[in-house]
Amino acid sequence: MNNIISWSVEDEAVIATNTDATECKRCAVELGYWKDEYITYFAKHVDRKAPEINRGYYARVKAIEMFIHQFLERCGTKCQIINLGCGYDTLYWRLKDTTQAVSNFVELDFPSVISKKCHTIKRNKQLLEKICNEDGEIVLRSGDLHADGYHLVGCDLSNVPETARKLAAAGVNTDSPTLVLAECVLVYLRPDAADALLAHLASSFPRLLLLLYEQCNLDDKFGEVMVRNLNLRGCSLAGARQCGKPEAQAQRMLAAGFETARCWDMRAVWRALPEEDRARVEAIEMLDERELLHQLHAHYAITVATRGELFADIDLNC
User: Fold this and answer.
1) Rounded to an integer, what distance in angstroms lies between the CA atom of residue 18 and that of residue 21?
2) Which among 39, 126, 238, 249 is placed 20 to 30 Å from 260, CA to CA?
């Protein structure tokens, strides 16, 4: 796990967004927005975040869970999940605590992020025991972690051949029903590299559900401010021009080879959440700046793209 790999200043800024997101999630969890017993291992101390940030992360997490549930309803546990740009996400452990653990779960990110996640897993029994049961073993090879049904690998997602090799080494079966998660990932890749990755996924997996969460409507004034603020942190959105209106993002998936594609901004996602869930969340914190939350929801979207009849009817309101 001591491989020396050179990353640019911009790469380091992107890596830092993982820490920010993890801290935001821990803050929301501590306030009771949702339950996550594992987030504390990856974010030890956090300052309180603004209410609109907490609600935004809640909507994001619940929407992803909603689509994962639909995916598992259709294919059961005999399937695989690939988490691109996984960061310190805890989805694997949360699924293991339910009856929804899948046959193979593969996480990919920068090698430095993977190294830190491996280190955290090895140091904490509660994380480790979910990966390595009594008869299982963990293999650490070239900085990657491999176990029965769980793989944590470092790679450059802009390099499709390398990514394909890493997926193969992690036991990915292209014939199995597959869910690919990409949360705030493709926007950091050059458009040509992101499109090449999308085309590879669409051509490789005949039964595929892709969940893409990232910015949208970046061509308006609010979007310009978002991009400028990230640039000031040294974090360039190489794919910002691809983050237009939701319908354009859906068309991008169809152009990459997916058979169906739909995209909703987070305003639509929020309205689709059960009324009792929204009422519970709104009671946690007072929200003075409702317009700011509305603007934030208008500038993030979830895209669902599919291959194969198994997932063709997956929808926001199911």
Assistant:
1) 5
2) 238
Q: Is 183 annotated among the ligand-binding residues?
A: yes
- The answer to whether the annotation marks 162 as part of a ligand binding site is no
Domain count, the chain: 1
- State the average pLDDT over residues 165-186: 96
- DSSP classification of residue 67: H
pTM of the full structure: 0.94
Asked if the structure places residue 21 within a domain, the reply is no
Q: Where are the alpha helices (DSSP H) in the chain?
A: 9-31, 51-75, 91-96, 111-123, 125-131, 160-169, 191-204, 221-232, 246-256, 266-272, 275-282, 290-298
Q: Are 211 and 64 in contact (CB under 8 A)?
A: yes
- pLDDT of 211 strictly over 90: yes
**pLDDT reported for residue 287:** 87
Q: Is 60 labelled as part of a ligand binding site?
A: yes
Could you tell me if residue 6 is inside a domain?
Answer: no
- Give residues with Cβ within 8 angstroms of 303, minimum separation 6: 210, 211, 212, 213, 246, 249, 250, 253, 261, 262, 263
State the Cα–Cα distance between residues 129 and 232, nearest whole angstrom. 41
What's the CATH code of the domain at 228?
A: 3.40.50.150
Residue 318 lies in a domain: no
Q: Is 207 annotated as a binding residue?
A: no
Q: Which domain holds residue 274?
A: 27-311
156 assigned binding-site residue? yes
